[in-house]
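REVIEWER CHECKLIST
Item 1: Sequence provided? yes
Item 2: Single chain? yes
Item 3: Sequence as submitted:
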Amino acid sequence: MASRQPVPVESARSTDGVPLVALNNLAKDYPGVRALRGVSLDLRRGEVHALVGENGAGKSTLIRILSGDVRPDGGSISIDGEPVVFNGPRDARQRGIVTIFQELMIAPDLSVAENIFLGNEPGSLFYSRAKAEQKAAEVLGSLGVGSQMRPSELAGNLSTAQRQLIEIARALVLRAPVIVMDEPTATLSENEAAALRRLIVRMRAEGTCILYVSHRLDEVMEIADRVTVLRGGERVATMDASSIGGTSELIGLMVGRPISELFPSRNEKIGEVVLSVSGLCRHGVFDDINFSVRAGEVVGFAGLVGAGRTEVMRAIFGADALESGEIRKDGHALTIRNPRDAIAQGIAYLPEDRKDQGLVLSMSGSENVVMASLERSCFAGFVSASAIRKTAETIGARLQFKGQLDAPAGTASGGNQQKLVIGKSILTGAQILIFDEPTRGIDVGAKAEIYRLIHLLAAEGAAVIIVSSELPELMGTCHRIYVMSDGRIRDELSLAEFDEKRILAGAFAGHMVPRATPPTVTAP
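Item 4: Structure as written out by the authors:
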């Protein structure tokens, strides 16, 4: 598809000549960082406007300004041609702008329905639980997950992906003229993401404007009318999606250089079986799980949300209860009662929610890296700050960490945060590495670096497992793929057999009925 020059922002207008929302020369500085430099864009009624860029490009700052969460240092915002000033998120919502943030804001002790209608309860004088649950069921049905999520279920029992769907449903019931979606499909399966895209198309036809932030460039090209690219806090281009010459052109604009190969060559030196599991069972969650992983091999797990992939990996790591079955390493049976046992046996688990489960965001990057192997930085019973710093710097250099290791981990980009989690696992000396959604919420440049690290670890002899909801990621990185559905492994594909349709067929197979989930077992 031939490309053309970027469309000037000033020419992008609604049909009545006035943009629904106009952001004019926005600027925002943080200590030592200029997050936005004179960024302008506008939003039309009934359009999907995609916003793309690497981590640190300024996307999050821009949408936080638009949501009223952050005040700009310069520039202005207009709605229907009228200048507005937001003193907080409530002001933005009252003017018809609702934001679905990537960082989930769920009340775990409330039900699904209560979370969806929190602050916007249906009913006249009194809250009606029945009415709320009925309306919640309707909106969940529109997302294609009506049969998978009960409105009465506690949100705290749900997976990360299911909580993301609550955030999306919460925005939909408000019927706002402008909806900002920040990585809405990052944790969703292909089926759920497709249902959301269909809903977005319907909302666009009804006149809703959607500002869509995503690292999934294929879906950006599929649903966007226009695309704005940010790089280094500046607007590089705003283009009609139909004029873009494929995702490679977008990547070049985002990173300022071409990325010739997203997926590196697979490691060819495959050794003996390192990890094997047989008959793993947790009642109502997964049953009769059997698989193996060899040294130097990258094995993927595909499936829909709720298929049991994460639950199996957490059980292997000792984070959740395992009722029966056997885990073997190098042919020897293991006893794993908690994550501490797993780490001692050379197993590392990198969770799907790195911010909540993988890092202590208030601690420095160096402290996070050495956290699971602190004894290496101790002398005569005392922790050595210089040893921590030296160890972290060595690992940081190996992982090509870009940023300040002495800064709080919460200030690092998504890709750098994932590198901190990987570094922590490397220091434990793990021979078995389990990556759960390893590139969730990180940009295409950081993805390429994570894939490089995964294959570097495999080339050094590690046995690697990847759980991912992105089929291109699994097919581009793995040697074999297991497909799970309803708590069971339905298919196993060798590299020569990789086929998207076959994987999806396996993901939709099976009819296991979920039952009550046993209590989570956590490390002491």
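Item 5: Key structural point noted by reviewer: The first helix runs from residue 59 to 66.
Item 6: Recommendation: ____
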